[in-house]
Specification:
By secondary structure, this protein is α+β, with helices and mostly antiparallel strands. The chain folds into 2 domains: 20-315, Bira Bifunctional Protein, Domain 2 (BirA Bifunctional Protein, domain 2, 2-Layer Sandwich); 328-418, Anticodon-binding domain (Rossmann fold), CATH 3.40.50.800. Helices cover 37% and strands 21% of the residues. The protein is built from 14 helices and 16 strands. The protein has helices spanning 20-39, 62-68, 87-96, 140-156, 171-180, 188-196, 204-212, 214-226, 231-241, 306-315, 338-350, 364-373, 384-389, 410-418; strands spanning 43-44, 50-52, 70-73, 79-82, 105-114, 126-135, 164-170, 248-250, 264-270, 278-284, 299-305, 328-332, 355-358, 378-382, 391-396, 402-406. It has an 8-stranded mixed β-sheet with strand order 1-5-6-11-10-9-7-8. A 5-stranded mixed β-sheet has the order 13-12-14-15-16, sandwiched between helices. The protein has a 3-stranded antiparallel β-sheet with strand order 2-4-3, with no helix packed on it. β3 and β4 form a beta hairpin. α1 (20-39) packs antiparallel against α4, α6 (188-196) runs antiparallel to α7 and α7 crosses α8. It is elongated. The structure holds histidyl-adenosine monophosphate.
């Protein structure tokens, strides 16, 4: 690097840095997602962040493929994308082992996605997303189960049923409306995307009229206005009651943007005044797997993003307070005690204590202050007298309490104090 030049410490727009306090929240969210999925019998899978662009063409959503995908050409001239969503990758993985996988498969993954969007509250260019899907089950039980799982995750993060609401609809209602209004298949994906974005558009009726012609646009709006529920949605709602999921409403304005949905669709909404918005959603997609040349395999699931989850927790006062994983700092009184401090640290680690050794060489008071600043709950000063006597004074930095113990009693003391 030339003298005097320096790099900017700024990150690329819309992507994420996670300082330890941020990563702590991220891990809280992920752990609730993982645990909930596993409590429901879902198996974890993963895939590369790189996929051939072809995977998304004609299968995902035109808006994502044409306007939001990060793509590049590799050294062999192939078009590659950073995944904008997980569902096509999941379909690819399943299709490749269609004969071996026992169905129904309950699979989940937590992975980062990239979309070239205008960064704003709740929408960034990089986000992490839980995907939980059931593949190979066509019945309403699977629709109900994935929604119950979404509900379970929200509850496990501390939300109560008044904090959020699940809104249900069905793509088949939309298809029936298109049919009745004489809207041909080629126009339907664009119409569905407009409906999905209606609240964000300045003039939705005008945009719809431009796409469908004024008369058909009006007919469609009227038809949808009159469509308030269906026997299937009522049945789904009562299935959900069996899971103790009651904060459900039927809202035929929910459409979701992707082309692959074929049945039930849902969105989870925040009910708080300051954050009244869609948090995440999903639905049934029974024809996507057939695109891979194999059988038609029904599937249903959802994607839950970390950005909106974090905003939700914040709006409801549910964010966990930060504490580092480190339980103990060994403060080293002088250089000659270093070897002994490291040996003690190793013994404690084998007993499952998380311990950092302070090798700064600073005065002991400064070392203790640093531990306190870092929110580490306990310190032990290690010097010659500790080395010679084999007894150590464990100090609780919050209460100020001290206790002197032999090395083999330290772990037990920490665990009982930490609860
Ligand atoms: P999606 O609605 O596009 O669906 O994304 C799912 C969730 O990911 C969103 O509701 C939101 O929580 C989060 N998300 C999406 N884009 C962004 C963004 N730019 N910034 C922050 N968060 C974002 C899907 O992707 C479907 N593949 C989900 C699915 C799985 N359907 C069935 N199975």
């Amino acid at each position: 690097m030339a003298k005097g030049s320096s790099f900017s410490a700024e990150r690329y727009r819309g992507v994420r840095d996670f300082y330890p306090e941020d990563q702590f929240v991220q891990r809280f969210i992920f752990e609730h997602m993982e645990r909930s999925c596993e409590l429901f019998g879902y198996e974890e899978y993963g895939a590369s962040i790189l996929e051939p662009v072809e995977l998304y063409r004609g299968k995902s959503s035109e808006e994502i493929v044409n306007e939001q995908m990060y793509t590049f050409t590799d050294r062999g001239g192939r078009e590659v994308a950073l995944r904008p969503e997980m569902t096509p990758s999941l379909a690819r993985l399943i299709a490749a082992r269609e004969r071996e996988i026992p169905f129904p498969a309950r699979w989940y993954a937590i992975a980062n996605m990239f979309r070239y969007e205008r960064p704003q509250r709740g929408r960034l260019r990089e986000h992490w997303q839980l995907n939980a899907d059931i593949v190979g089950a066509a019945g309403i039980e699977a629709d109900a189960e994935v929604i119950a799982l979404a509900h379970f995750i929200m509850r496990s993060m501390g939300a109560d049923e008044h904090d959020f609401e699940i809104r249900l609809s069905d793509r088949r209602l939309l298809d029936a409306a298109y049919e009745e209004c004489g809207i041909e298949g080629t126009l339907r994906p664009a119409a569905t995307r407009l409906l999905d974005k209606r609240d964000k558009l300045d003039d939705f009726p005008a945009a719809l009229a431009e796409l469908l012609g004024a008369e058909r646009a009006r007919a469609l709006e009227e038809k949808l206005e009159r469509t308030t529920s269906s026997a299937f949605l009522e049945e789904l709602r009562s299935e959900l009651q069996g899971f103790d999921v009651r904060n459900v409403s039927i809202d035929t304005r929910v459409t979701r943007g992707f082309d692959y949905y074929t049945g039930m669709v849902f969105e989870v909404y925040d009910t708080s005044e300051e954050n009244r918005r869609s948090l995440f959603g999903g639905g049934r997609y029974d024809n996507l797997l057939a695109h891979f040349g194999g059988k038609q395999i029904p599937a249903v699931g959802f994607g839950m993003g970390d950005v909106t989850a974090r905003d939700f927790l914040d709006a409801h006062g549910l964010l966990p307070g930060y504490a580092p994983a480190t339980e103990l700092m060994l403060c080293v009184v002088d250089r000659s005690a270093m070897v002994h401090a490291n040996k003690l640290a190793q013994d404690l680690r084998r007993e499952d204590v998380t311990v950092a050794v302070n090798f700064s060489g600073k005065r002991i008071g400064d070392q203790v202050r640093q531990a306190d600043k870092m929110n580490i709950p306990f310190v032990i000063a290690v010097g010659e007298s500790e080395r010679d006597s084999g007894r150590y004074t464990v100090k609780n930095l919050e209460s100020g309490a001290e206790i002197t113990l032999p090395a083999d009693r330290i772990a037990e003391h920490l665990f009982s104090s930490l609860g």
